[in-house]
Design goal:
11 helices; 2 domains; Aminopeptidase; 28% strand; single chain; 21 strands; globular; alpha+beta
Length: 360
Amino acid sequence: MSRQATVDFACNLDLSVERVTDFIGANWLRPTILSDPDFYRWQFVDPVGGKGKDHCVVALLDGEIVGFLGLNKRTFNAGGRNLNGAELTTWIVKEEARGTGVAKAMLDLVKRNFDIAYGANITKDAVRAYIRMGFKFIREVPRLLRIYDFNKVTALGTMDAVIPKVFKVASAHSEASLPFSAVDIAKIDGAWQDRFDRSHANLAWRYANHPVYRYQALRIGEDTTFIYRIEEVAGVRIMIPTDILCSELPTSPVVAALDYFARSEDIDLIDFFSTNGAMNAALTRAGFIPCLDLRDFVDLAYLYNPLEVKSSKSYSLISYLDESISLSGLDIHSLHITKADCDLDRPNPTYLEKIGRAQK
């Protein structure tokens, strides 16, 4: 680098939140809620792992911000071990700083300070940089659907005629075999393995204190809790589970109870994303539609605001595991990454306008 850039966590650089959000607003590909200082504070300052400090990675060149990488410091429970984890989002390097080593320095800082890191929905240019730095790229996160009204759901895209025939959900004629009830998210606590922290304090921040979305929780039986929100898109009422918390994999009776609840709430579609291979297999056995396996037969939008059917069928991920962790056999398919992680369930300006909270 002809000029030496300073790359550090925002909390070490004496930067105001407003200065960082102004940079994001001026330089991100499209309008983003991260340019709102209040949302930024919730996203990056309030999380439990950061202890009130902003750990986003910022690059300064001659005192001006030229790079930003959103980062939540968040413990990752891997096989009973607590690892120093990071959720990554929204990587920006200004044109003038590209090719100068700034991008490498930003990722070097992440790799030096964290055992494990994940980011989602990566741009093509960013994927190249991540791969060069030893990150792994996962093109598409598995997506599983449970459809109750196939006619309505076709408003979101296309389906082969075989899908309704094979995956039709039987109408409920009796009470569910397992009890289910709403639970207070703020009272949920646990230490579930192979995922980012789902402790009481983290769940309260992520869900109960979310500045825009209203999340709810449904407990089925003694062991399984679905955290979700409901959204209506193109006349389709969608239940969006952002997490499933359980010590045992969901069974057909669990899904049958979920069906009973969904019908009672006039849900047309359940739309769930998960990297956990065992979880996905269990849900598929219980009747969920595995979209990636059936990509030639199901082509529904996964971006709802605005509604968009893309050539890719799901979100992408990048991952970094310290070499000692990688050697232990931990891989993406054994880990539990869902829309609860990596900023995958973030409201965008189109959604804010829809609910009457458009950004100024």
